[in-house]
Amino acid sequence: MERRTFVGQGVALAGAATVFSPRPALAAFGGAAEVTVPSSKLKELTRWPRYGASEKQALHSLIDEGTFYGELPSFEKEWKDYTKSPHVKAHMNGSSALTSMYFALDLPAGSEIMVPSYTFFSTCLAMRFFSYVPIFVDIDPKTACFDLDDAKKKLTPRTKAVVAMHSWGLPCELDKIAGWCKEKGLILLEDAAHSHGASMQGRSTGTWGAMGIFSFQASKVMPTVEGGMGMYQTREYFERAAAFGHYEDPVKFPKESPVRAYEGTGFGQKYRMHPFAAAIGRVQLRGLDAINAVAAGNVRRLNDRVCQLPGLFEPRVRADQKRVYYNGNMLFLDTAKAGFNRDQLVRALKAEGVAVSFWDYPEQHKLKIYSEAKWFHHAPTIPDKMPGNAHVNANHIFLPALYGEAGELLDQYAKAFEKVWARKTEVSKL
């Protein structure tokens, strides 16, 4: 008999004998793990924040020179230039920027603001200080971002504004949301806390709405440990938001400004960013596009391969959207197509050495404070269900964002995924 090798089948024929070379066994069932890159390498690739000599030098210079507060206007100017925003204001964190944004709206008490339930609490809760009430909107299960179709069903006569939150660095469909807001006479706002460097149609997130905010907290795409930035399309919004948390600002405004009269007090809060955070922010901003490109390149190298597997796919990104990666590389699992559920997948991948995880975003509408009318002008409507929220929370996984040359690790990760899919029957029993 002619000797032939069937590589794809894993079978060799030699004479009358048949020798089988089965696919490698799953590590969960005693096989060798696919990932052999040392954990120390993964730790370095995922280290965050990534501070180095430049950040240290910036802080040392600030301490030595003692000219602390000049860092704030410098950082604001550089951020303004980077985002092409008409007006910006540094804040001590994203939550204070949100609070100032809601103050700047100056809407009647009882006004309702549409906001995703799938978000950090400040996006929803800060509005209560000004007698506004949240309308909880679902997310699109294919993007984890604001579901415009759900919003259209929940529009009320009291609705005055809409907050689009760019989940995990993926811009919402801002053109569609902005068009609907214009049609209905609603004010578009943005929570861009996850999306430093992201854009849509060449326009930075945070600049599509009348106002927007960024957070620079330690886990964010551009971390300063703590910090935030407000974005304003009009001088009126800028002056009100700035004066709410910065008593030193009214004197800087034109004499004809209605806010100028509040010189010396502002509107009662102090939300100034720490100069050390501004100094770090200036350094981080210079490297933002480069570090985003490294993370995105590593995501593409892995996802272009593993998303060929049945039932595994990325959040939908339009051709005119540029996304960034906050927290990690989120993927969605279709359990029917894959042949196993998320828990089984995670167990199998972890056994192979893959740093896989999931984190169910707390759904704001389910939390106690929104069920108690005493905290709000009037009781928020609590939806019976949020199918988009529930679907994303139940069917996502996170892989780490990698900041450096990771070719070997990514290849091993891809092989681990392919091995798991090749052994799906066994995985379904884990």
Question: Could you give the topology of this structure?
Answer:
Elements: E1 4-6, E2 11-14, E3 17-20, H1 39-46, H2 53-65, H3 71-83, E4 87-91, H4 94-105, E5 112-116, H5 121-125, E6 133-137, H6 148-153, E7 159-165, H7 174-184, E8 187-191, E9 199-200, E10 203-204, E11 211-215, E12 228-232, H8 235-245, H9 275-286, H10 288-306, E13 312-313, E14 321-322, E15 329-333, H11 335-338, H12 342-352, H13 387-395, E16 396-399, H14 407-422, H15 424-427
Parallel strand pairs: 5-6, 5-7, 7-8, 8-11
Antiparallel strand pairs: 1-2, 2-3, 4-12, 9-10, 9-14, 11-12, 13-15, 15-16
Helix pairs in contact: 2-9, 3-9, 4-8, 10-14, 12-14
Described by the principal axes of the CA atoms, the overall outline is globular
* Biggest pleated-sheet summary: 7 strands, mixed
Number of strands: 16
The amount of beta strand, in percent, is 15-25%
Text of the CATH class of the largest domain: Alpha Beta
CATH-derived topology of the largest domain: Aspartate Aminotransferase, domain 2
The radius of gyration is: 25 Å
How much helix, percentage-wise, in residues?
A: 25-40%
CATH architectural type of the largest domain: 3-Layer(aba) Sandwich
Instruction: Determine the number of helices (DSSP H or I, runs of at least 4 residues).
Output: 15
Low-confidence stretches: 1-21
Strand neighbour order, sheet with most strands: 4-12-11-8-7-5-6
Please, what is the CATH homologous superfamily of the largest domain?
A: Type I PLP-dependent aspartate aminotransferase-like (Major domain)
Distance between the termini: 42 Å
Average residue-wise pLDDT? 94
* Derived structural class: alpha/beta
